Amino acid sequence: xxxxxxxxxxxxxxxxxxxxxxxxxxxxxxxxxxxxxxxxxxxxxxxxxxxxxxxxxxxxxxxxxxxxxxxxxxxxxxxxxxxxxxxxxxxxxxxxxxxxxxxxxxxxxxxxxxxxxxxxxxxxxxxxxxxxxxxxxxxxxxxxxxxxxxxxxxxxxxxxxxxxxxxxxxxxxxxxxxxxxxxxxxxxxxxxxxxxxxxxxxxxxxxxxxxxxxxxxxxxxxxxxxxxxxxxxxxxxxxxxxxxxxxxxxxxxxxxxxxxxxxxxxxxxxxxxxxxxxxxxxxxxxxxxxxxxxxxxxxxxxxxxxxxxxxxxxxxxxxxxxxxxxxxxxxxxxxxxxxxxxxxxxxxxxxxxxxxxxxxxxxxx
Length: 365
Ligand code: PMP
Prior knowledge:
Blueprint: E1 6-7, H1 17-27, H2 45-62, E2 68-73, H3 76-88, E3 95-100, H4 103-112, E4 117-123, E5 146-150, E6 152-153, E7 158-159, E8 172-175, E9 192-196, E10 207-212, H5 229-234, H6 244-261, H7 264-283, E11 290-291, E12 302-306, H8 310-322, E13 325-326, E14 337-340, H9 347-364
Parallel strand pairs: 1-13, 3-4, 3-5, 5-8, 8-9
Antiparallel strand pairs: 2-10, 6-7, 9-10, 11-12, 12-14
The structure holds 4'-deoxy-4'-aminopyridoxal-5'-phosphate.
4'-deoxy-4'-aminopyridoxal-5'-phosphate binds next to helix 3.
């Protein structure tokens, strides 16, 4: 027996229990190492093998071809806001085009502006970031440095169902931090996609960057060394000491996805089933629960909704807590409720939340 709750945290977030147990078993002494993984060199061949296995499992899950580099970096998704613009925009006359659909896109724009010309090609601020653009809602010039979007805005709970329209000559860049590995992706459509690990892919401390190799040479070599993707690529993510423990856990999560879940198509099916069960309760609550996102762009990962009042929201969070349903409070910037139901959230957790929501609505409406 453990005290583990159903944890709806937006990140760092729930991890597969089987992965946590494996980590626990190997923690004191990594098989073959005579020491904990935390205690061995990143140059140790056992760790190098762990790193390569993690990369290869990601390549196989997502079907990433040799045209792409897969890099493990530190600095969170936030460092990527700067790195992308430093590599692909700084020193050019081009514009970087941003589709602004929520809080994380806004932060990315702020950093990119320090590096060059940034155009906000679409902005859904007027409707409080509850929707996504169609191709008719923005234009992107053929000579843009890149077109940037966030595939899943974690705070608002809006998720693109497929890649936004982008001219073939322009690299498409995606912040996939909160929906990485939730479904198959046509990686070939991207110039670069990245994700911090602490939602679907592992613990905090590592970010995965998948980048088309021909873009590695664009950057001015005088940008700060850590930001320069080529350094990470050329040195197999060991340009400096990588976050060894986070990469190790990420590798295990990726193998769990492949072996226990059966791949990303299967994962998507489960994620659809889980999220739809909650959206159905919202839709059938006669307005007691109001979903934040427009129905056509509801996130599979972060289910965001409001209750009739702030008092009711507080009561919901508190009562949910006594039902072992944790971390449901919406982000401090938007309020309401956010149920983050990442890959590792078991069906039973979603079921328990759904039952609680139905019961809470019937007692309070
Ligand atoms: N982008 C998205 C979509 C996120 O959800 C987050 C983290 N919540 C970030 C960026 C920032 O990530 P980090 O804290 O790792 O910098």
